[in-house]
Amino acid sequence: MADGWAPTPLADAPSGRWEFPAVWSNSGMIVWGGNDGLRTDTGARYEIQISPDGDLDGFCTTDCNDADGQIWSAPAETQDLTFSMDTMTLNWTAPAEPGSFAVAYDTLRSQAAGDFGAAAICVESNDPSDTSSTDVTAPAGGVVFYYLTRAENTCPEGQGSLGARSDGTLRTGRTCPAPLP
User: Fold this and answer.
1) Considering only CA atoms, which of 110, 106, 121, 109 is closest in space to residue 151?
2) Nearest to residue 106, comparing CAs of 170, 176, 163?
């Protein structure tokens, strides 16, 4: 990530010293002489390895698509899923880290709290317009609907998390179909 610290290898680095002349050579430093307790006449070239940022978005080693500056990672999970007063509209907060400039959302509904797999329904699929969806289907008497939302983008593995259960286990759920062209 840009403007961050990363460990650099110490192989071929000069010994610790002070009062030394040094020259930066665009990818490393040449250090010669100086004082390490005694005057020294040794030196070395210390090369640093910098990951290239092909799309110049500021993300190097964690970038999921270094050819596209509009996307850098899978999105984090959505937050604060609630119903509106009309009892059909669900609202949520966008992920704190969207991973790209373009994020879409899936809304999953299930009649079983722990099963958002094949039995779940995709109420909304890949909708980039807002952080809400509407489910006009009302549960039958004695039935409860459970909902999860997921952010996604075009990163490979670009589906965000469905959150975690109270024991910390990540929730899993079905993949919703892409929208029709």
Assistant:
1) 106
2) 176
Q: Is residue 93 part of a domain?
A: yes
Residue 90's H or E segment, with its range, is strand 89-93
Structure tokens given for 8: 């650099």
The CA distance from 94 to 79, in Å, is 7
Instruction: Count how many domains the chain has.
Output: 2
Question: Is 56 domain-assigned?
Answer: no
- Looking at the DSSP bridge assignments, the partners of residue 30 are 23, 45
How far does Cα 6 stand from its chain's mean position? 18
Domain housing 166: 63-181
- Is the pLDDT score of 66 beyond 80? no
Task: Please give the full DSSP string across 113-173, using - where no structure is assigned.
Answer: TT-BSTT-EEEEEEE-S-SEEE--PPPPTT---EEEEEEE-SSTT-B----B-TTSPBP-B
pTM over 0.90? The answer is no
Confidence of residue 16 (pLDDT cuts 50, 70, 90): confident
